[in-house]
Every structure is written in C-alpha cells, then in structure tokens.
Write a structure and sequence with these properties.
Layout (H helix, E strand, L loop, with lengths): L3 E5 L2 E5 L3 E2 L1 H8 L4 H9 L7 E3 L2 E5 H9 L14
Antiparallel strand pairs: 1-2, 3-5, 4-5
Amino acid sequence: MVGYRETTGSVPVVSTSRLVGIEEIAGGMIKISKRAWLRLCEQGKAPWGVKLNGRRLWDLQRLEKWMDAGCPAVREVNGGMK
C-alpha cells in the first residue's frame, strides 16, 4: 500500500489507499493499451485519477467500485477523480 499525506488544518492525515499506475490498469486489470485507457479518460468514460509527483495514479478501491458499477461515464473530463 502507498501512504501519502494530506493536511487537514494543522493535523496531517495519512491515507493508506493503494494507488496504481497505468501499467497495472491497462496491462493487468482491463487488458487494453495505455493509450486506449487514456483515451477513455479524456472522453469522460473512465476516471482520471490523481497526479502525484508527476505521475498519474488511480485509487484501486475507487477504480474497483467504478468497475463494479458497470463502468459508468464520469463527469470529469480532463479533470481529477473525486
């Protein structure tokens, strides 16, 4: 699991969400090319994830929920996953 810090007021909050990269999503979970995955994100058909240290990552738990829900279109286009 990847831990990252968020600050709420003056108290840091540590998240233990597992963040996955495009390689794990496109090559492992969904079996499409990286470019095809990014195209789905650009079209608002898949979540964009978050950018951390210059790398785009997706919260595995949120991604699994999205897939369990039947991969519905998302509202954010070229934005961040809420």
